[in-house]
């Protein structure tokens, strides 16, 4: 028994939402027909528990690396029914499947009443007349048999999930533009707002240099580079990879490097014109990240740099180039930051993947590394030169 608070109480053992029977009972999930929506089920179940009068969280063991769970207890100041869920009509004219599932959970929890306990003696739980059968504490599983939730990091590979990108532009080393964007078709760097809008990717217009530069000669050269962008520099994600293509006459070189480019660092390649070329692969990044979390490697690189209209600044500072653009997938920066802040052995922080439909994750070091290892198993690794 966990303890008594304001009357009789009894513990509810480990709750691990996964594929609950109530989803099948409501018709929201038909095995073999519907795709399981594990994150939504878990969120609805937790929401119903948190809203229910007479239930309180007794112990939070969600960060246990070996057996993450929470323990709830029923609390009531007297013997009787719990308060019933709000049954007022929906003012919006209808309810979603998620709302229906939460109402079913509320009804299930509301049908439970607490019976007085002999002292001493173990607690008992009486169940009010159904319409829904309420689980008994005498059974091995007090709540429906729930499966573990899926690896949340696998959202990085889901085609429908939109990565967020932070785009920063520099003219002669001076930052002149920064924008964070999330778009399903990728992005496209252009030098003019007037262009071919039928091309793929969300157009991001680089600013006119007259807004930030004072040297008229440099302004003229930058404007020439921007005008040569034509259809733009396109960047999109497909699976675990990022692909780039130039749609104009402006030659562009790229590299995945540190936050600030060092002198002597050569380009990783040139962005092709007639086809897409791979510029980033999530697979090696995750492998390097695992090594980094174990304290035996350097932080993996994730910032994409593009040198537009000129040769790569290999033998001189990058700040001498007319137009440089840095593109950072914020989900990758978040993964590196939580590893860096937590350290190799004490990782216990919250991370937001910054992709569509994602929620902040609270992970221990062991959970984080296990999820990363599991993610690697779902990836394919290409040899050098393969695209």
Describe it:
It contains 7 helices and 19 strands. It has 387 residues and is an alpha+beta fold. It folds into 2 domains: 12-75, Winged helix-like DNA-binding domain superfamily/Winged helix DNA-binding domain (Arc Repressor Mutant, subunit A, Orthogonal Bundle), CATH 1.10.10; 153-378, Tumour Suppressor Smad4. Strand 2 (55-61) and strand 3 form a beta hairpin. It has helices spanning 21-25, 38-51, 97-110, 216-227, 282-293, 330-342, 365-377, and strands spanning 9-12, 55-61, 69-75, 80-81, 112-114, 125-127, 164-171, 174-182, 187-190, 202-205, 233-238, 241-246, 252-257, 269-270, 277-281, 303-308, 323-329, 348-351, 361-364.
List the helices and strands and how they pair.
Blueprint: E1 9-12, H1 21-25, H2 38-51, E2 55-61, E3 69-75, E4 80-81, H3 97-110, E5 112-114, E6 125-127, E7 164-171, E8 174-182, E9 187-190, E10 202-205, H4 216-227, E11 233-238, E12 241-246, E13 252-257, E14 269-270, E15 277-281, H5 282-293, E16 303-308, E17 323-329, H6 330-342, E18 348-351, E19 361-364, H7 365-377
Parallel strand pairs: 9-10
Antiparallel strand pairs: 1-3, 2-3, 4-5, 5-6, 7-8, 7-17, 9-11, 11-12, 12-15, 13-14, 13-16, 16-17, 18-19
Helix pairs in contact: 2-3, 5-7
InterPro entries: Interferon_reg_fact_DNA-bd_dom (IPR001346), Interferon_reg_factor-3 (IPR019471), SMAD-like_dom_sf (IPR017855), SMAD_FHA_dom_sf (IPR008984), WH-like_DNA-bd_sf (IPR036388), WH_DNA-bd_sf (IPR036390)
Biased composition (Polar residues): 84-101
Region (Disordered): 77-101, 113-149
């Amino acid at each position: 028994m966990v303890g008594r608070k304001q009357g009789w109480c009894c513990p509810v053992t480990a709750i691990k939402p996964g594929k609950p029977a109530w989803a099948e009972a409501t018709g929201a999930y038909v095995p073999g027909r519907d795709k399981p929506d594990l994150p939504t089920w878990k969120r609805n179940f937790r929401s119903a528990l948190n809203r229910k009068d007479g239930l309180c969280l007794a112990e939070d063991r969600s960060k246990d690396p070996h057996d993450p769970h929470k323990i709830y207890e029923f609390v009531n100041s007297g013997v009787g029914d719990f308060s019933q869920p709000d049954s007022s009509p929906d003012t919006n004219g209808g309810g979603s499947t998620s709302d229906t599932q939460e109402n079913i959970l509320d009804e299930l929890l509301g049908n439970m009443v607490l019976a007085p306990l002999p002292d001493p003696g173990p607690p008992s739980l009486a169940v009010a007349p159904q319409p829904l059968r309420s689980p008994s504490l005498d059974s091995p599983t007090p709540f429906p048999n729930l499966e573990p939730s899926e690896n949340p990091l696998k959202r990085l590979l889901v085609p429908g999930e939109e990565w967020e990108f932070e785009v920063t532009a520099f003219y002669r080393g001076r930052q002149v533009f920064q924008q964070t964007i999330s778009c399903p078709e990728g992005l496209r760097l252009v030098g003019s707002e007037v262009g071919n809008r039928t091309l793929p990717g969300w157009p991001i217009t680089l600013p006119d240099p007259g807004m930030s530069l004072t040297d008229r000669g440099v302004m003229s050269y930058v404007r020439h580079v921007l005008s040569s962008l034509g259809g733009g520099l396109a960047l999109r994600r497909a699976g675990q990879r990022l692909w780039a293509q130039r749609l104009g006459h402006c030659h562009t070189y790229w590299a995945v490097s540190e936050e600030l480019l060092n002198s002597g660092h050569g380009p990783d390649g040139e962005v092709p014109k007639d086809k897409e070329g791979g510029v980033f692969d999530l697979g090696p990044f995750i492998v390097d990240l695992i090594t980094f979390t174990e304290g035996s490697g350097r932080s993996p690189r994730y910032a994409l740099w593009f040198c537009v209209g000129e040769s790569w600044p290999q033998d001189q500072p990058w700040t001498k180039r007319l137009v440089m653009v840095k593109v950072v997938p914020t989900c990758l920066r978040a993964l590196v930051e939580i590893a860096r802040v937590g350290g190799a052995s004490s990782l216990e922080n919250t991370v937001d993947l910054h992709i569509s439909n994602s929620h902040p994750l609270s992970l221990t070091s062991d959970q984080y590394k296990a999820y990363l290892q599991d993610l690697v198993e779902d990836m394919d690794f290409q040899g050098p030169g393969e695209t």
